[in-house]
């Protein structure tokens, strides 16, 4: 397995659309009050790490930049388009409950999110999505902080840990914590209580 530098990964805080059960994909939605709290929790976890001044790279979508502005304590960061969430085509902006009424063949509400969103009509699809995230991962050459999304984060973390496509859906997708990936092993930093 290829070796990578240590990575601190944060998913953006909860958004208004997360709370409503809407598909976001690459459509913009802002952090909810709970999402702002998630980012503040991440800042408390990241403060000692940020003192070492690692490079920080963030998806350009508004919810990730909002999270980064808080979780990184106002420090500067680079933006990289390859970290954007999967483009979910015709499903973007729709409620998941409405989508469940008209699913593509072979997809059910229980399908892992990675496969579910990759099947979106008119969407990016798994192969293109994976290729773009893999291209980003191939550029990592020093310990780095990354702020992105649930599914792009699963692909990124899976690549760093050498997981198969079927194992990606088993990764958790939490907000308000920090995933640390080092030597192919993932651990989670979270606040006590």
Report on the architecture of this protein:
- There is one protein chain.
- With 193 residues, this protein is α/β, with parallel strands linked by helices.
- The chain contains eight helices and six strands; from the N terminus they run βααβαβαααβααββ.
- A six-stranded mixed sheet has the order 3-2-4-1-5-6, with helices on both faces.
- The termini are far apart.
- The mean pLDDT is 95.
**Rg (C-alpha, Å):** 16 Å
User: What class would the helix/strand composition place it in?
Assistant: alpha/beta
Query: What is the β-strand count?
Result: 6
Number of discrete helical segments? 8
CATH class: Alpha Beta
Summary tags:
8 helices, Rossmann fold, 193 residues
SSE layout and pairing:
Layout: E1 7-11, H1 16-20, H2 33-50, E2 56-58, H3 62-71, E3 78-79, H4 96-99, H5 113-118, H6 126-137, E4 144-148, H7 150-161, H8 165-168, E5 178-182, E6 185-189
Parallel strand pairs: 1-4, 2-3, 2-4
Antiparallel strand pairs: 1-5, 5-6
Outline of the structure:
37% of the residues lie in helices and 13% in strands. With 193 residues, it is of the alpha/beta class.
């Amino acid at each position: 397995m290829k070796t990578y530098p240590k990575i601190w990964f944060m998913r953006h805080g909860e958004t208004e659309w997360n709370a409503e059960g809407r598909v976001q994909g690459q459509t913009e939605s802002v952090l909810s009050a709970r999402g702002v709290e998630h980012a503040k929790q991440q800042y408390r976890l990241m403060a000692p790490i940020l003192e070492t001044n690692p490079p920080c790279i963030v998806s350009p979508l508004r919810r990730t930049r909002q999270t980064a502005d808080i979780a990184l304590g106002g420090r500067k960061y680079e933006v990289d388009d390859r970290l954007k969430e999967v483009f979910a085509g015709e499903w973007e902006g729709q409620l998941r409950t409405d989508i469940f009424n008209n699913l593509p063949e072979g997809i059910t509400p229980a399908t892992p999110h990675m496969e579910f969103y990759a099947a979106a009509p008119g969407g990016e699809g798994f192969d293109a999505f994976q290729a773009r995230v893999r291209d980003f991962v191939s550029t990592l050459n020093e310990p780095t902080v990354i702020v992105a999304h649930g599914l792009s984060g699963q692909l990124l973390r899976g690549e760093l840990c050498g997981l198969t496509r079927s194992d990606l859906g088993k990764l958790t997708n939490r907000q308000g914590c920090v995933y640390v990936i080092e030597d192919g092993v993932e651990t989670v930093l979270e606040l006590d209580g």
